[in-house]
């Protein structure tokens, strides 16, 4: 398709072939008997949930996971038959609505369990094994109370799960032990939901022996991987690349300044390229503060001054032939790896891609060609 009109300012290219490859990698790790829950919260980490969720289901994801009811409703409109699970809080007053839409919700209190049973809502119970964010306290002395709640009449309990804090190996093992003990206790007392799950993306790769009946995978699917967990299986780059255009060239003499507060000062005759993207598009302002770089004509160029809301500047003095209209890679792929951009931004890779805003059209690629466009401004 002709996507040229979407490449006039800033745009996000999303490689669907890479997404498919990462789903296949997951299957290689977990096998066919373990359910794959694809996490598509926060607009599929900023990549466009409408398209990404559909492609993940086609590629073999068994369940889609979101953060809240509004995200689940959005997916239900386009995927009427998909299994959709809400990982965060569903207010009691919204549970009937969730049941009507055949959603799966997370519970961790008796009040939630009672309401879910009343309205016939499908649920997974979350157990707090040490993260201390959400979940039933599942220390040994609390297990009888959990069993009483989860064993109530009418409760459609389909799973129990927890989340690793990923502090270190020893702490991870403590969480696994708590989770396993809780699951076994529940089963010994006649509570045997179909799914038990604790592994996320990192857990799936690091601890496949603990994957149980399901894994919840988000970052791995999108090629976003913390460097401290580097692994040969995760070497693919992030599947998304943020790009923009050069809109103007400025020529500065020695001592002339540019940008707010003249944070760039020319120490030699310099050429700056103005790029039509900024923090209003989701580019981190902090990246320009901490020696951020972009790629123009396959050359890395340092940013000049701070990124503005809608524009930024880069020093292209040493790059031959830069012209207005040239394509700029802001982050992604191999030109500007997401790990470097995230470090400049003082954030992690998940946030780096999730913050891309709605005014940036998403261009979905197969075989290097655009096959679909998602433009929230149209």
Total count of helical runs of at least 4 residues:
12
CATH first level of the largest domain: which class?
Answer: Alpha Beta
**CATH architecture heading of the largest domain:** Alpha-Beta Barrel
- The domain count comes to 2
Query: CATH superfamily membership of the largest domain, which one?
Result: Alanine racemase
What does this structure look like?
- 29% of the residues lie in helices and 25% in strands.
- It has twelve helices and 20 strands.
- A hairpin with a 2-residue loop joins strand 19 (362-366) and strand 20.
- Helix 1 packs across helix 3 (49-59).
Entry keywords:
about 375 residues; TIM Barrel; Lyase, Ornithine Decarboxylase, Chain A, domain 1; 2 domains; nine-stranded mixed beta sheet; five-stranded parallel beta sheet
């Amino acid at each position: 398709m002709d996507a040229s009109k979407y490449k006039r300012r800033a745009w996000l290219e999303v490689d669907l072939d890479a997404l498919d490859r990462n789903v296949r990698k997951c299957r290689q790790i977990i096998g066919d008997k373990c359910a794959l829950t694809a996490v598509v919260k926060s607009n599929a980490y900023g990549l466009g949930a409408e398209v990404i969720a559909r492609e993940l289901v086609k590629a073999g994801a068994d369940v889609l996971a979101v953060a809240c009811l509004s995200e689940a409703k959005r997916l239900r409109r386009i995927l009427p038959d998909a299994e959709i699970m809400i990982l965060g809080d569903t207010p009691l007053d919204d549970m009937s609505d969730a049941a009507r839409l055949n959603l799966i919700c997370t519970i961790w209190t008796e009040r939630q369990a009672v309401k879910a049973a009343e309205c016939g809502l499908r649920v997974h119970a979350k157990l707090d094994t040490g993260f201390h964010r959400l979940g039933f306290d599942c220390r040994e002395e609390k297990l009888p109370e959990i069993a009483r709640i989860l064993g109530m009449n009418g409760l459609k309990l389909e799973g129990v799960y927890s989340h690793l804090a990923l502090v270190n190996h020893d702490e991870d093992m403590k969480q696994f032990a708590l989770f396993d003990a809780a699951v076994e206790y529940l089963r010994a007392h006649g509570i045997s939901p179909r799914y038990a799950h604790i592994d996320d993306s990192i857990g799936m790769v690091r601890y496949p022996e603990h994957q149980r009946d399901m894994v919840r995978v988000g970052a791995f699917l999108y090629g976003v991987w913390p460097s401290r967990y580097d692994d040969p299986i995760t070497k693919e780059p992030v599947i998304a690349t943020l790009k923009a255009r050069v809109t103007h060239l400025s020529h500065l003499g020695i001592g002339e300044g540019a940008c707010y507060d003249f944070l760039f000062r020319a120490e030699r005759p310099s050429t700056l390229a103005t790029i039509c993207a900024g923090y209003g598009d989701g580019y981190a302002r902090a990246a320009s503060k901490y020696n951020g770089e972009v790629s123009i004509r396959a050359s890395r160029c340092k940013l000049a001054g701070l990124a503005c809301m809608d524009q930024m500047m880069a020093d292209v003095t040493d790059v031959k032939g830069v012209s207005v209209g040239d394509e700029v890679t802001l982050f992604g792929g191999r030109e500007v790896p997401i790990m470097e951009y995230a470090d400049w931004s003082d954030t992690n890779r998940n946030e780096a891609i999730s913050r891309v805003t709605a005014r940036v059209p998403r261009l979905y690629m197969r075989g290097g060609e655009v096959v679909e466009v998602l433009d929230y401004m149209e």
